[in-house]
Automatic annotation (TrEMBL):
<dbReference type="InterPro" id="IPR020904">
    <property type="entry name" value="Sc_DH/Rdtase_CS"/>
</dbReference>
<dbReference type="InterPro" id="IPR002347">
    <property type="entry name" value="SDR_fam"/>
</dbReference>
<dbReference type="GO" id="GO:0005997">
    <property type="term" value="P:xylulose metabolic process"/>
</dbReference>
<keyword id="KW-0521">NADP</keyword>
<protein>
    <submittedName>
        <fullName>SDR family oxidoreductase</fullName>
    </submittedName>
</protein>
<comment type="similarity">
    <text>Belongs to the short-chain dehydrogenases/reductases (SDR) family.</text>
</comment>
<dbReference type="GO" id="GO:0006006">
    <property type="term" value="P:glucose metabolic process"/>
</dbReference>
<dbReference type="InterPro" id="IPR051737">
    <property type="entry name" value="L-xylulose/Carbonyl_redctase"/>
</dbReference>
<dbReference type="GO" id="GO:0004090">
    <property type="term" value="F:carbonyl reductase (NADPH) activity"/>
</dbReference>
<dbReference type="Pfam" id="PF13561">
    <property type="entry name" value="adh_short_C2"/>
</dbReference>
<dbReference type="GO" id="GO:0050038">
    <property type="term" value="F:L-xylulose reductase (NADPH) activity"/>
</dbReference>
<comment type="subunit">
    <text>Homotetramer.</text>
</comment>
<dbReference type="InterPro" id="IPR036291">
    <property type="entry name" value="NAD(P)-bd_dom_sf"/>
</dbReference>
Amino acid sequence: MGFSNQLLNGKTIMVTGAGKGIGRACALLAAQCGAYVIAVARTESDLLQLQKDSTELSGTIETWSEDVTKASFHQRLKGLSELHGLINNVGTNRVAKMTEQADDDVDAVLDLNIKSLYRCAKAALIPMQKSGGSIVNMSSQMGFVGSPGRTLYCASKHGVEGLSKAMAVELAADNIRVNTVAPTFVLTPMTEPMFENPQFKKFVFDMIPMQKLASTEDVANACVFLLSDLSAMVTGTCIKVDGGWTAR
Ligand SMILES: NC(=O)c1ccc[n+]([C@@H]2O[C@H](COP(=O)([O-])OP(=O)(O)OC[C@H]3O[C@@H](n4cnc5c(N)ncnc54)[C@H](OP(=O)(O)O)[C@@H]3O)[C@@H](O)[C@H]2O)c1
């Protein structure tokens, strides 16, 4: 076994938030490596486009137009006959100084980034029980450091790091591995508006020793490695795709 377009042959992999950005790149790469991918997002037009763009790939993409916060989605996920991998990718950010942060934002960010991620992982354990699996929780470099205007987001991603380590310890006996991927800034619909501010752009490039943003493919590569048997002995850890931001 090695790096090849058959790396994920025979595996069923769910990617949440697969309509845009990082999740879309993960779904396409997993299908390129032979997986049967279940791509989840709410916007049907994004999912249709994803399916169109995957027709030449060796794997298959099935789409689920679902909201990952809903109990009905968790029930549907529990009903799968088998699942070998989950990229728990949905997440959000509400950038503001603590003194200006709306109280609703505290719930919105923690509910989606922690509670919903936890519930999706919990539901995935049922179809993973049969043959074990690999869960990749999408973190961020902000799961390791602080940054102005991002205290709430940092709290949520530090939570994802802690949760993932604890899950790895608890689930190892069930042959379920749990890791995170922690990207630096990636241009996606979530971050594009941020980079319209030249001061912010300069701040980001000054903070990244490699002086470039990560691409969605950079992040997908790390995720696919963690889903595959190439990482069979890797659990409870993080792959930082951050160009050195957190190494300073
Ligand atoms: N972009 C970055 O710079 C960066 C850096 C570090 C970490 N991250 C993390 O990477 C993850 C993905 O970020 P991104 O920038 O790719 O995000 P994005 O561009 O905003 O895309 C998010 C995807 O998730 C879907 N989604 C959102 N809420 C959903 C829900 N409740 N149920 C189902 N699908 C939902 C969206 O589609 P619908 O709205 O149609 O459902 C969309 O397809 C997040 O966890 C983020 O914190 C991003």
